[in-house]
Amino acid sequence: MNEVSDHLDYGLTLVFIGFNPSLRSGEVGHHYANPRNNFWRILHKSGLTPRLYEASEDGELLKLGYGFTNIVARPTRGAEDITRDEYRLGRETLREKLAEYRPEVACFVGKGVYTEFSGSSRVDWGLQPNSVVDGIHEFVAPSSSGLVRMPMDEIIGIYRQLNDYISKEEF
Q1: Sign of CA pseudo-dihedral 109, 113, 117, 118
Q2: Measured between alpha carbons, how far is 17 from 3 in angstroms, rounded to an integer?
Q3: Which among 20, 23, 26, 91 is most buried, taking Cβ atoms within 10 Å?
Q4: Residue 87 domain flag
Q5: Ranges for the Uracil-DNA glycosylase-like domain (predicted)?
Q6: What is the DSSP code string of 132-169?
Q7: What is the pLDDT of residue 171?
């Protein structure tokens, strides 16, 4: 199965970082393509996007200053299928990408993604007090997977905090 291409560029306000692509994303070549994933609805309802985008339009978000990548590139059925070696390599590669592209904010889509990246065992939602990559603000948001048991209003509220933060900051 093919990897899903990153959507990265210099000067981005925000980069969304997931665990890895779903099998559906690998099939179609777009981020957050599983129809049970709520990512696109969350972005719209939180005010991060002016309209509801579809996964096939993921590259269009570069125009909004938003990019996409993952800690592991290989599509799997679930994060539990990612190996320790893949995480080790993924951490190094992700640090290199963030250091090169220097987005203002790195948004980790799920606490597990951030704990794998940072090595921190205790992580709260929202802006992190210490950044792994100097000069980049790190924000932890809930996973958008349809398997998440958190109420949708709470998830949207955390993403709304991200929207408020990037709207107020003068990067």
Answers
A1: positive
A2: 15
A3: 20
A4: no
A5: 9-151
A6: SSTT-EEEEE----TT--S-HHHHHHHHHHHHHHHHH-
A7: 63
Helix H segments across the chain? Answer: 23-28, 39-45, 84-101, 111-118, 152-168
Distances (CA, A) of 113 to 27, 44, 109, 169: 22, 22, 7, 24
CATH number, domain containing residue 26: 3.40.470.10
For the stretch 42-73, pLDDT in tens is: 999 999 999 999 999 999 999 999 999 999 99
Domains of the chain: total: 1
Report if residue 111 sits inside a domain. Answer: yes
Residue type, 81: D
Non-local CB neighbours of 78 within 8 Å, separated by 6+ positions = none
Is residue 151 situated within a structural domain?
yes
Burial code (b: 16+ CB inside 10 Å, e: under 16) for 143-169 equals bbbeeeeeeeeebbebbebbbebbeee
Chain segment 74-125, per-residue pLDDT in tens: 888 888 888 999 999 999 999 999 999 999 999 999 999 999 999 998 899 9
